[in-house]
Each structure stands twice: as C-alpha cells, then as structure tokens.
Amino acid sequence: MTVKGEATVVKHTGSHYLLAQLPEWDLFPAVLRGKIRLKGSTATNPVAVGDKVTFEADGPVSEENPAAITAVHPRRNYIIRKSTNLSRQSHIIASNLDRAFIIATIDYPELKLPFLDRILVTCEVYNVPVTIVLNKVDLYRESHAEMLAAFHEIYEGAGYPVMEVSAKTGEGVDELREACRGHVSLFSGVSGVGKSSLIKALDPSLDPKVGEISEAHVQGRHTTTFYEMYALSSGGFIVDTPGLRGFGLVDLKKEEIALYFPEMLRVSEDCRFAPCTHTHEPGCAVKEAVEAGEISYDRYSSYLGMLDEEGKYR
Ligand code: GDP
Ligand code: ZN
Predict the structure, then answer these.
(1) For ligand 1, is residue 105 a contact (CB within 6 Å)?
(2) Mean pLDDT along residues 31-45
(3) H helix or E strand, kind and range, residue 118
(4) What distance in angstroms lies between residue 230's CA and the mean position of ligand 1's atoms?
(5) Best mutation site among 197, 206, 209, 238 for ligand 1, i.e. most ligand atoms within 8 A of its Cβ?
(6) CB of 264 shorter than 6 A to ligand 1
(7) Of the given ranges (143-152, 200-209, 239-248), which has the lowest mean pLDDT?
(8) Does residue 195's CB lie within 6 angstroms of at least one atom of ligand 1?
(9) N or C: lower Cβ tally within 10 Å for the chain?
(10) What's the rounded Cα separation, in Å, for the pair 208 and 11?
C-alpha cells in the first residue's frame, strides 16, 4: 500500500535524504523520484535542507526501502551560496528559515565588517530575518567597550537585533535558546567566532562537526556532505553552516545593492536621481546622511566595496 505525506528535509548526503515531519523528529530516509527541479532555479541541488516535500512510501520505510520524494513545495525563502565569483552556479544552503543568527565577535577574531555586511545583504535579498549574535563578550566587553557600543548603534540603528552572549560563561545563552524555540534558524559565522561552542552551549547533546564541507565540494563534482538540521532539546531546529567562505551575493545589479542596506533604503527616496548609486550623483540623500553621521561610514564603505566587486564580475 502506498502512503503519501509531507515532510521536511533535515539532511542531504549525496543522493540520500533524511526527512522528518516537524515538529516531530521522526527521521526517515528518502531518495528522489525522477527529476525534480523548481522552476527558474539555477541551483546545483534541486532539494535543500529545510525544503517541504511530498513523499510516497510503499510499506514500512527503512534504509532498504526509502521513501520517495515526489515534489518540492515552493520555498518561503532560502539562503544561497555561489560556487565561485565567476560561475553562475549556486548552492542552496537551507530554505524556509524563520531567522538567521549571524555569530560574530568584536575581537578574537577581529570583526570583519565587510564580510558581516555581505552576509546581511544576502539575508535581506532572500528575505531571511537576521539577529546578530556577538559571542565572546567575556573577552572584550571591558577592553572594547566603545567599539561594542558603536556596533549596537550602527546595527540596531539599521534594524538588526544584536544579542550579547558568551558560550564560555553562559551569559545570554538562555535568551538565545528562547529565541530559537519553535523556529527553524540558520546559524552562521566565520570560523573561530565560537559557533560550535555556542551550539553546544545551547544543547550539550549536539556535536556539530566543524569544517566538514570543503570548498572543493561546493565547486561541483563530488558533492558528498551538505548542510544539516539539528533539533534542539529545548525546542526549535537549527541549520549549522560550516565553512561559510563563499557566502555571497548572487545576481544583484549594481543599482539594487543599496536596497538591501535598510538604513540606506529608508533615505534613498530623497535622492534627486532614481535610480541613484549613491556615489557621484548630486543631491544624494544617502551621501548626505553619511556625511551627517546618520549612516555609518563603515556600512557605506561595505556598500562601495560590493558595488566595486559587482562591477568587476559583470
Ligand atoms: P567556530 O569555529 O565558530 O565553531 O568556533 P569554536 O566553537 O571552535 O571556538 C573557537 C575558539 O573560541 C575555541 O577555542 C573556543 O573555546 C573559544 N570560544 C568560543 N566561545 C567563547 C566565548 O564565549 N568566550 C571565550 N573566551 N572563548 C570562546
Ligand atoms: Zn543617492
């Protein structure tokens, strides 16, 4: 007898998938039946972690008798990474995300604002709400008090909630756990910021593997291990993203980039020209806001950097 159902993809390894009927964590194996491709998608993976799928099963499902994924439902949102700057190939990291928690540090390792801003733009493009999580505050709260205050002002001013946590002392971890409850959340951050430590602090039974995804995998050919969803024992699900180097912009036109800097978007309707690149145009409200100190010069620099890069590869 064939049974039909709906489930969420929680893991993808080669041609094998693991599904669960969230919020139940009733993991069962599945494979793709036939060719599944969402219209207009150039992604190398037709089915991604977080996808809602229709499956069919003949008899009890087991490794030998996996369910068959027959359809992928339209994605509410997703996060993508480009294979290389020059290729048009992209890989969907995860879909149907309620929120992305971007883990960063003011120091140890030193904060790279352009990298953070690039991730934020990507999340804006794909409609994933972001919370910035500043980890390791035990190390720099006193020594970098001014930078910390400036960070809050810039990013909260732009519209991003900023949490302070320490995986080491446990400070802020309860609040983060609470924020994850009942949601599917993406966890990302450059290596060394303490993402693994933080996930373990949220749920000691989890043991995220670090660095399992190499750049070579994403370049194509042998794609073995992909991203994976974990169930937090306190409730909620997280998708860890090891090796995030290639997290970047996909198919953005120059004049579109500023739309994804919320604080620039807000003032840009007052620019004399439309579209305005906010670089050389007279009567540019964004440049005026930067000069008046209302928009952070660092954020504006990140924006200019992205403009420059898009120009180069187009
Ligand atoms: P990941 O690469 O982002 O997964 O980072 P890890 O979790 O491996 O942590 C990198 C280093 O930072 C390790 O030596 C951790 O012990 C340390 N670390 C992580 N979180 C904290 C924190 O909140 N405070 C301090 N002092 N060290 C931390
Ligand atoms: Zn302008």
Answers:
(1) no
(2) 76
(3) helix 113-125
(4) 20
(5) 197
(6) no
(7) 239-248
(8) yes
(9) N
(10) 13
Q: Which two tokens stand for residue 64?
A: 């030998």
Q: Residue 81 has which token pair?
A: 């990474």
Residue 98 has pLDDT above 80, yes or no: yes
Distances (CA, A) of 314 to 20, 231, 251, 262: 41, 41, 9, 24
For residue 260, what are the CA distances in angstroms to 74, 217, 296?
A: 23, 29, 15
199 lines ligand 1 (CB under 6 A): no
Q: Which two tokens stand for residue 180?
A: 């994850």
pTM: 0.91
What is the predicted pLDDT for the residue at 88? 66
Looking at the CA of 270, which ligand is closest?
2
Q: Please give the structure tokens belonging to residue 82.
A: 């480009």
Which DSSP category does 259 fall into?
A: G
- DSSP 8-state secondary structure symbol assigned to residue 43: B
Among the four given CATH numbers 2.60.120.10, 2.40.50.140, 3.40.50.720, 2.40.10.340, the one describing domain 2-72: 2.40.50.140
User: What is the average pLDDT across 182-204?
Assistant: 94
Measured CA to CA, the distance from residue 107 to residue 148 in angstroms comes to 10
Q: Which secondary-structure segment (H or E) carries 135?
A: none
User: Given this structure, which CATH class describes domain 254-307?
Assistant: mainly alpha
Instruction: Extract the tokens encoding 223.
Output: 């794609």
How do residues 138-176 score in pLDDT, each as one tens digit? 999 999 999 999 999 999 999 999 999 999 999 999 999
Which range among 6-15, 266-275, 281-290 shows the weakest confidence by mean pLDDT? 6-15
Identify the band that residue 312 occupies on the pLDDT scale cut at 50, 70 and 90. low
Q: Which CATH class is domain 78-240?
A: alpha beta
Q: Residue ranges per domain, the chain?
A: 2-72, 78-240, 254-307
